[in-house]
Write a sequence for this structure.
């Protein structure tokens, strides 16, 4: 229903109803920039009187731009979080590899010491055998 009260309507001013505060839509930053370019081209073509410069209240575009900025920051945060998780997993893997390498290194050093000791004992035994054989001659 529609009810008019008050002054008479003589048509001296345009009857425009602005529905933009009731509309909800999301725009990407690309579409905002393309809309601004389109408005500039329409404004420069000579039909400035028929095309309003500000379509809708400015707080909606500010709200959308903040929403878009928030979305971009959230996407960057998620990407950084995924990269952080990946890098942490790589660090854990490298730490495990390092600890395995250190333990293998210790085992190899112990093995070298054991082999060196066994080599010295064999050398002493062979020298003893040589001395014994020389005594028999």
């Amino acid at each position: 229903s529609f009810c008019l009260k008050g002054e008479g309507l003589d048509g001296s001013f345009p009857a425009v109803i602005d529905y933009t505060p009731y509309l909800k839509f999301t725009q990407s930053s690309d579409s905002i920039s393309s809309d601004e370019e389109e408005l500039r081209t329409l404004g420069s073509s000579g039909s400035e009187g028929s095309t309003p410069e500000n379509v809708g209240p400015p707080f909606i575009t500010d709200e959308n731009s903040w929403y878009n900025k928030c979305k971009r920051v959230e996407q960057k945060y998620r990407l950084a979080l995924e990269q952080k998780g990946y890098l942490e997993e790589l660090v854990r893997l490298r730490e495990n590899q390092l600890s395995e390498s250190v333990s293998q290194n210790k085992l190899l050093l112990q093995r070298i010491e054991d082999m060196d000791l066994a080599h010295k004992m064999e050398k002493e035994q062979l020298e003893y055998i040589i001395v014994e054989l020389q005594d028999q001659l």
User: Anything to note?
Assistant: The radius of gyration is 43 Å. The helical segments are 29-44, 58-136. The CA atoms of residues 43 and 49 lie 9 Å apart. Confidence is low (pLDDT under 50) at residues 46-59.
